[in-house]
Input
Amino acid sequence: MKKLLSCVVALMLLSSLVMGAGQSDAKPGSKVSLTFVDVMGSSARTQSLWEMIADFEKENPNITISLISPPYEQAEQKLMLMLNAKEPIDIVEVRAVNVKQFVNNGFLTNLEPWVQKWSDAKTLLPSLVGFMRAIDNTAYYVPSSTLSKAMFVRTDITKKLGISSQPKTVQELKDVCIRITNASANQFGFAIRGKNQVSAFFDPFVFCNVPNIDPNNIYRLSDGQVAFTHPAVLQGLKDWVDLYERGAPPDSINWGWNEQIQGFASGITPYLYQDPDTIPLLAEMQLTTDQYATFPMPVGSTGKVYLNMGPGGPGIPSYSKNKEAAWKFIAFSLTPERNAKMNKVYGALPVHSVSYEKDPYFGEGVYKAYATQFSDPARYPVVQYPWDSPKSPGWRQIHDADMQAVLLHKMSPEDAVAKWAAYWK
Output
């Protein structure tokens, strides 16, 4: 779970905040009140949103915006309840994982009429344009940030342990994590993910050895077969189990995001796959770049590793009566300059190519690994997940449970892979 925000006041005052948001499109010069529901809240990010709203209202004195930021753990459920009830909302944050569900329920406005005329659309990262139009080749939201994995390494720890270079392949990563593990000294190698979205960590470790993944669906091969039928997946699962048993803490079978970060920050597990929003948190934990660094993800026998980008961004509810004003704020907030500033606070990656070209912050230091991956799509291809499949909503829970069973030797790797292949057939 990413940096929780307890926004009690927003919840207590929900009714009063949304009272005026459903007014009809206003005549020129009249007052317009918008309601914006933020589901990716963190304390710093939400504060930055309020500052952006204040700047917008100064430039647009006839438009006011009320921001609702439910606590992170409750935000998705709260938003779904509000949309189902058609509570007056004018801007809503949409994620790649739920856009299909929102579209199927008729919750979102087709933004193509605005996007087609939006001057900053030309600098959106091409991969994010694909995500934006993943459903019916139509933009139902505009990405405002994205997350992707890179490798974090506690270089101060690995140096003390005699490691002079970084693993470039998953085999090298596995070998070095096992080599430095000394349970009696409470020293391990890898911060494995044991629960809660294990697939986000398991998939790049395993599928990098599969040469013909369909870029439009990581669970399919280019010939249409289910990817779990490839023999490299079974071997990858066995390697994952071996890495856990010989190169990770025993209790990491129960680790989620917080525990992974704590293990890394403490030095117990100096190797970690994570998203860039980890970077501001490590700074808050007073971990400096003299102590850690990021590197491109290790590749497989294919010479590449398949990466996923987790974009999210604003959309407009289909029943909003203030769509022009809502889009005006969306376009205001997503200029390259404002988007880069917001993501520096949030820790995610900006959505415009010019941000990486003009701002050294996103191309150097601990962000360089991400810039390297984006600039080399042959080695680090971005793949899609089948979020539009009716099987997707239940997949992560099934996969998490099966991975626990495999690590506890209650299910064989062969049975797990066969079950997953049947599920996606």
